[in-house]
């Protein structure tokens, strides 16, 4: 489906994207708990494992390979992101799958999620992979390398220029992948800027309720989808049926949730930025809506995502401020319907100890704003 059609029909795709895969008349398709599936009763339809390995296969055989609910979730995710989606049991499992598929000698990445850097350290330790910052692409990148751009980035919510890094990477023959977790549809479409692979931690906005772990890779090339699935068969990184079922449930409300969360975050950031001199504990705000670069408007036409970060005056304030809030839960992660705040130093040792990451949920915008203002005052 063309990108403009996806955007205009996103809400309907989220609800009905997998209707054609329904196996029973239930309005909500059931969880499949079986680990194995009966082969076709017609011998003429049977294909050997060797035959099935040579191309896409719609059969159900064993739950480590695929399951009905995983297939439904992948169909919806592919439709709403404009490609072919492959699900994994976490965002980090998805990132590792991309590294195993591309098998690069060098990876160029920004200061993305620390877990991705952790995987790169493991690959460096075991296989000698080299890692560099994005500013080294033009100097050091070669054919077959990977450029990994997280945008908006964790934990600040600031945006990086996708088109710029696609141009730099492709000029060197490198593959370019974007982690778009912080700006899912309808906020951002990395494929519009020519990326090779899009990654999401589906735990976050696709899951949306802080009750499942999943990751997804999306490609425009069906043969790459097939290869990723064959790799997943051997790594065992497929999500369980319950997680996939929860994901299909959550995708039904993705459009409403994300639009509400982003609009609220943009309004709160705007108010805090305009009144920072009246808030004695607040020293800085990070969010893509405050960036002035022209590319930000192209990548994020609806404004910044639902996550932003703030710096406060000192470590003690950062440590204690979450306890002063009534509507924000002090916890890690993001993307759920509940608003969260995290003293980020608790989970990411790279961060300033005066930084707090804020994930906006679906609560009342004015009440969330007033809660933050009273704490920062």
Task: Please provide a brief summary of the model.
The protein has 377 residues and is of the alpha/beta class. It contains 14 helices and 12 strands.
Structure description:
With about 375 residues, the chain is α/β, with parallel strands linked by helices. It is built from 14 helices and 12 strands. The chain has helices at about 5-10, 10-15, 50, 70-80, 90-100, 115-125, 135-140, 160-170, 220-235, 240-250, 255-275, 295-300, 315-320, 365-375, and strands spanning about 85-90, 105-110, 130, 145-150, 175-180, 195-200, 215-220, 280-285, 305-310, 330, 340-345, 355-360. The strands form 2 sheets. A 7-stranded mixed β-sheet has the order 1-7-6-5-4-2-3, sandwiched between helices. Strands 8-9-12-11-10 form a 5-stranded mixed β-sheet. Helix 6 links the parallel strand 2 and strand 3. Helix 4 runs parallel beside helix 10 and helix 11 (about 255-275) runs parallel beside helix 14 (about 365-375).
What topology emerges from the helices and strands here?
Layout: H1 3-8, H2 10-16, H3 49-52, H4 68-81, E1 84-88, H5 91-102, E2 106-109, H6 114-127, E3 130-132, H7 137-140, E4 146-150, H8 162-171, E5 175-179, E6 197-200, E7 215-219, H9 222-235, H10 241-251, H11 254-274, E8 282-286, H12 294-299, E9 307-312, H13 315-320, E10 329-330, E11 340-343, E12 355-359, H14 365-376
Parallel strand pairs: 2-3, 2-4, 4-5, 5-6, 10-11
Antiparallel strand pairs: 1-7, 6-7, 8-9, 9-12, 11-12
Helix pairs in contact: 2-4, 4-10, 5-9, 11-14
């Amino acid at each position: 489906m063309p990108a403009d059609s996806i955007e205009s029909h996103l809400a309907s795709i989220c609800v009905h994207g997998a209707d054609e895969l329904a196996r029973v008349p239930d309005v909500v398709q059931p969880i499949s708990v079986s680990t194995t599936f009966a082969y076709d009763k017609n011998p003429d339809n049977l294909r050997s494992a060797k035959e099935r390995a040579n191309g896409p296969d719609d059969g159900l055989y064993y739950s480590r390979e695929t399951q009905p609910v995983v297939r439904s979730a992948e169909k919806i995710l592919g439709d709403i992101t404009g490609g072919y989606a492959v699900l994994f049991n976490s965002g980090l499992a998805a990132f590792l799958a991309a590294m195993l598929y591309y098998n690069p000698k060098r990876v160029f990445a920004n200061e993305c999620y620390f877990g991705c850097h952790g995987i790169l350290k493991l690959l460096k330790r075991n296989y000698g992979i080299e890692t560099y910052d994005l500013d080294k692409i033009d100097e050091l990148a070669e054919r077959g390398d990977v450029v990994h751009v997280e945008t908006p980035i964790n934990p600040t919510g600031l945006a990086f220029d996708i088109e710029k890094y696609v141009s730099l990477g492709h000029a060197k023959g490198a593959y370019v992948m974007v982690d778009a977790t912080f700006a899912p549809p309808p906020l951002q479409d990395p494929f519009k800027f020519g990326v090779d692979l899009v990654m999401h931690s589906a735990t976050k906005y696709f899951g949306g309720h802080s009750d499942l772990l999943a990751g997804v890779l999306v490609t425009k090339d069906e043969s790459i989808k097939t290869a990723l699935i064959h790799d997943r068969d051997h790594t065992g990184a497929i999500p369980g049926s319950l997680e996939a079922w929860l994901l299909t449930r959550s995708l039904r409300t993705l459009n409403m949730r994300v639009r509400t969360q982003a609009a609220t975050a943009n309004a709160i950031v705007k108010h805090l930025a305009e009144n920072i001199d009246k808030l004695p504990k607040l020293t800085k705000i990070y969010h893509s809506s405050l960036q002035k670069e022209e590319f930000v408007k192209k990548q994020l036409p609806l404004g910044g995502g639902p996550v932003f970060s703030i710096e406060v005056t000192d470590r003690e304030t950062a440590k204690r401020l979450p306890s002063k809030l009534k509507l924000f839960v002090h916890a890690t992660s993001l993307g759920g319907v509940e608003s969260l705040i995290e003293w980020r130093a608790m989970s990411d040792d790279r961060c300033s100890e005066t930084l707090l990451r804020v994930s906006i949920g679906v609560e009342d915008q004015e009440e969330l704003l007033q809660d933050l203002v009273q704490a920062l005052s």
